[in-house]
Amino acid sequence: MRTEFSKYVVLIFMFLFLLLNACANEEISVSREYDFAIAIHGGAGTLKRESMSSETEAEYRAKLLEALQEGYHVLENGGSSLDAVVAAIKIMENSPLFNAGKGAVFTHNGLNELDASIMDGKTLKAGAVGAIRNVKNPIGLARLVMEKTWHVLLIGEGARLFAEEQGVELVSDEYFFTKRRWDSLQNSLEKESEKDRSEISIESNSYLGTVGAVALDKNRNLAAGTSTGGMTNKLYGRVGDSPLIGAGTYANNKTCAVSATGQGEYFIRGMIAHDISAMMEYSGKGLEESSHEVIMNKLTAMGGTGGVIAIDSEGNISMPFNTSGMYRAYHQSGEEPVVKIFKD
Ligand code: ASP
Known about the structure:
By secondary structure, the chain is α+β, with helices and mostly antiparallel strands. It has helices spanning about 1-30, 55-75, 80-95, 140-150, 155-165, 180-190, 195-205, 265-270, 270-285, 285-300; strands at about 35-45, 115-120, 125-130, 155, 210-215, 220-230, 250, 255-260, 305-310, 315-320, 325-330, 340. The N and C termini lie far apart (about 70 Å).
């Protein structure tokens, strides 16, 4: 009887020993996760080292780093991933370098129509605006749609009225005028009489310049946001993938947060951002494998070009693109920030 009893005691001790060991190992893997992290992009396209001056390259790198650090500091100070995404995107929207906010491209009839969206990975709530004019920071308005209405997407004149009601900063048409974007519209319009419109669209949009951010905060919540002026010479009223949840933006704490850039029509038809999340959710594949599969295989096979930035709930980051370059940067807690443009 006594030996039976001591056998059980030994077994219980062994079980406790194994349990403690498993917990200790778990702790090791937990400590390998990043506390918080952020990644941003400033658009993908034909970006070649040999055709970019060192001054231009330095200018882009500095602005990307500024936006990245703005978001990183929000996270470092305990702010939410949504706050970090908005902070980083606003810096890029306020710069003429990117095709979002201030630097937005022109539509066929010489207007600037902006698209943006944001998604909260914790609640799966999302907000977006499409084809809006005169709003300085569309990402901020997208967030207000998410937080102050029960809708996901507001467009055009209605979105503008909502912006007025919410007291967001409105700017004149002239605010969005940049010579570079105007010249590229004129260039595209000149060629239009000679060639097919879709061919022109591809030529005029070899580098796009949409901006986006994805982040993981200290509470392990994911968020994603994207903002754009769309594509040069797009038809008035055209809405791209950037404000469409699942196409250009997606976030789910169970899987990942994604922001896309590229020819929006392909991203819409391929449901690119959600596809990456779905692959992780249903097949159990990791972030890197899922995002590469969707961009390098699926998008490429469809004939689409562009890329994504994606982050998972451990702060791992993946940034696949099938163009020659993508303005991109990331910063994981405790590591150095990284800024990249070309395929290197
Ligand atoms: N995806 C954007 C659009 O089609 C363009 C871009 O990524 O630069 O509107």
